[in-house]
Amino acid sequence: MGSLRSDENVSLPILFSYWSRIPHGSLGDHQMEGVGLESTASSSTVEDSSNPPPDDANPFLLEDTNLSALDGIQHESSIDHIQHESPSIYSPTSPIPVSSPLSRTAHYSPRSPVWSHLQDLSTIQIINEILITLAPVLNIMIVDMPLRSLHPRDDGQGVRKLLRQGFEALVNIEELVSISDELYLDTEEDSDEPPVWTIWSKLRRMALYDVRINERLWSEIASCPQLKMLVLSKPNTWPGGPHRENIKEQWSKAADFKEFTTAFVDWFYRGPNFWPFVPQWHELDPQNKLCVLKVPLYPPDEEGYDRHDPTRWPTPPDWLTQAWIRERALSSTLWSEVKTSNTFTSTKKGQTT
């Protein structure tokens, strides 16, 4: 693949992976492991595609711990036309047990115990330039970055502003999966900055992790003109858990109902219980324009994963949740699987589930 031109009209799936791979208990030398990013142009274009990217539009990945930013490719900045070579940084591949895809995170900790690598300004500057350069052609993106490891109050270098600027440029995004958080790009503590994805007018499908469920979220979702599907993994709710949340009532207070599907993905023992709200939902939304799904997760069938005691699992449930989303996003099956693996689906008035 040669240098990218800003006028190339292609669909470009891409993944950003930016984690420090440090074994549990290791506080020795911390090697910066930067950005893992791969892109592959498909034959479809943003302009002539009237439908969401198909489930078989695979966002390829070199390997989940590869840290080169479009490694070995020349990038031409759309701003200053300066070409640069992306850095290549060695990164080991973590062992993956064959018996269960949910065990991929079982042999390393994906978080540095002492320092956020988001503080590496030179790397963030490269990310900013890559995002701005790819903005005209990028429409599918999977993000796996520790955006909450550096809070605005600790950001003395303006790193978060650079990241937000880069992501705001991605106006052609149609599909977003944020694996590790809600795409947290606030630049000020306790600010009212809208989520970056609210300015992406072409956004059609989105998956977010650990999002606070409230009326503000549904108002922001409803403001996205093309958004038709939302997957929420490990939803962050008010005290009491997701079963305390009346989703359709919240939506009705925030916006008019529109044709939309939202899926809640979480572990079987803490997943939402929407059944008590069904009678009210039939009155609020008799045509079921807002379709609500519940997708329970179950532990791998391996030693150490006792369903009755998740606190003793070799890999914490939250990391396994992220692994579940990541694998299905990379194989382009996430959107279809939540529709077929759910144990609850809201219905029209008069229908039974």
Automatic annotation (TrEMBL):
Residues 38-50, 86-103 have a biased composition (Low complexity). Residues 37-62, 85-104 are annotated as: Disordered. It comes from the Eukaryota. This is Uncharacterized protein. It comes from Fusarium torreyae.
